[in-house]
Request: fold
Amino acid sequence: VRLITVADQTAQQQNEVAGAVESVQRATIGAKIAGPIEEMPISLGLVVKKGALLVRISAGEIAARLSQAETQLAQAQRNFEREKRLLEKDASTRETVKSLEEAYRVAEAGAHEARAMRDYAMITAPFAGIISQKMANTGDLATPGMPLLVLENTEQLQVVAAAPEGLALKIKKGDTLSVSVPAAQFSQTGTVTEISPATDTASRTALVKIRFNNTAGLQPGQYARVALPGAAGVSTFLVPEAALLRFGQMERIFVAQNNTAHLRLVRSGEHRDGQVEILAGLNGGEQVVVQGGERLVDGQSVRIVP
Reply:
């Protein structure tokens, strides 16, 4: 048989929770004015630049209101300037000039408001990203607050997970946590950027956001898992997986002492990188059989090879 000597180690238990990949920068684009959608030159999956046209809403009433406001502004400006010239010739009063100036300022504000309303008819991208959802089409009637599309920046992603309240207390902003996306065979460590200061009363969980580098072309909405820190100070031993022998529901390991094999029933923990944690049934400093143990029985004499 071949042996290794195990040493007592202090490990920290890990608890995995489910999460989802989300974009750090995500916006639901809605309408501010009512009117039929005149143009919507986008499609699902389209990559757009900042400032690109997303939606054009037909706003004939707003155009008429703007024309009226600009006409009133021009008229108010002419009256105000004429009265100022008359005042310089002592042919008017300061009160009249002040009244016309106020009327001019009101007309100017009305024109600004009408121009702003006209600009609401042109919806542009607030940042560069990809169209992930499209809830309207050309010809649909847009109303104020109505969601039209969702724009996401897939260059910056994060995993959002709900951590149980007991584990959330051990997490701080800036901590490093392991995240994985099984579907993409992706595994990486990320940094906690946000953690909810309040626990949800229904689920007793707190929201945690972990940001990472998107080096695998991940997409928002993918299923993810997050490893959260658990109880510290757990005494464990790491042995090669080949040393652990299963017989039905029992987990067995052979240890060698005075050239004799002794059977031990053990309880295993986490498996990682070809190693397995032994949580119970083994003592520090013992020599564990890692090769040749399949044919051993308790009390059998053994010959140790390097």
Q: What stands out?
A: The mean pLDDT is 84. DSSP finds three helices and 21 strands in the chain. The longest helix spans residues 60-88. The helical segments are 60-88, 94-120, 165-168.
